[in-house]
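Handoff note, outgoing to incoming analyst
You'll be picking up this chain. Sequence as last confirmed:
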Amino acid sequence: MASPGTRSGRSGNSRTGAGSSRLRTDDRRAQISAIAAELFSERGYHGVGLGEIASAAGITGPAIYRHFPNKQGILAHAAREFAAALSSCAQEADAEPGSDEAKLDSAVRAVAALVVRRRGSIRLYQWEARHLDDEDRAQLTSSLRTLIAVVAHRLGAVRPELPEATAGLLASAALSGIASWSTHRVALSDRAAEETLRSAASVVLAADPPPAPDTTAAPGSPPVSALAARREKLLAASVPLFRKQGFHAVSMEEIGTAAGINASSVYRHFSGKADLLAAVYYRAADRLAVATGRAVDDAGDAATALRGLVGAYVDFAFGNRDLLAIYLSEYRNLPTDDRHALRRAQRDHIRQWVTLTGQVRPDARHPQVTVQAALNVINDLAMPSTPLAAPGQATHLALDVLHFA
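Most recent structure output, in case you need it:
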């Protein structure tokens, strides 16, 4: 009940008005950042202008500066808001009454609901976080690690036989399966999507992957011979630079320097940076097509073909981590014709997974969602500078998702 002072008197009305004004401002900031997150996710941070964000939010370009100093400020706000949402998932799930099984299930449900509701924000974290400053990026990373730790802790209580490292691996992989919802545009109701994503996560959390062998991880970018042609050296030099800094932040001169080639000579091999990026994409698509094609062609039945397809993709992902990251994140920056051609190649690759999964599991309700979950598990485990799993573990988890989710 309101106090007498808030029902009458100028001071009470003033305070209420100020509070309402702040609330309206906060609501507008949240609206702008949510719209921007979707646009950044669709077209990339550098592909969206402040005027486009303002127009989508129904305000004028100058009016956006009442809420944010610049585009970087909008990205930072969206990231901080998403970090807070992740933290809430962890805290609320851990505070649930009941058994460890109930708490674990609550965490999975909360994350699945968040991902389905905030589809664009997941891709924002996956690919646009590199444009944040160190503090905001660290906050986002910390929130995700907290969520993983909560899921791993509850999983360890439910499955006490698991080594701590394995519980952490399964927690990370389960969350990657859920986050796969951001990687495609399958038309599915929110309820069906959440159920399918939870199923994939539950399969991962129940898995028994093989122990990791004591081996050194393959390099993110395979070494290039000193005798390689200049074009090959430029391709090899561009991959880690594009992966670390993003396409727009890297210059042709910087690529030439990294390759040991004079800036004036770079344009003899590529007409521009987009042309070079397209060559990188075709290289990745060709390598992947050869590896997976050989695995499937040598198989005698659908189950063997699916195992071969997964194994070939895992080998590609772990052996070409930087190339994979670019292949998944920079397609918006390709020349139009190349972008369409390469998207068709990517869709054909996914279709092969979906077809084989459907043949192995005719009762699968949403095989494309399941396939994307398996692929995202592999990608997220392989791409960090220090992979989160061994190739055999990633293969095991992906096949479990395809067969049982």
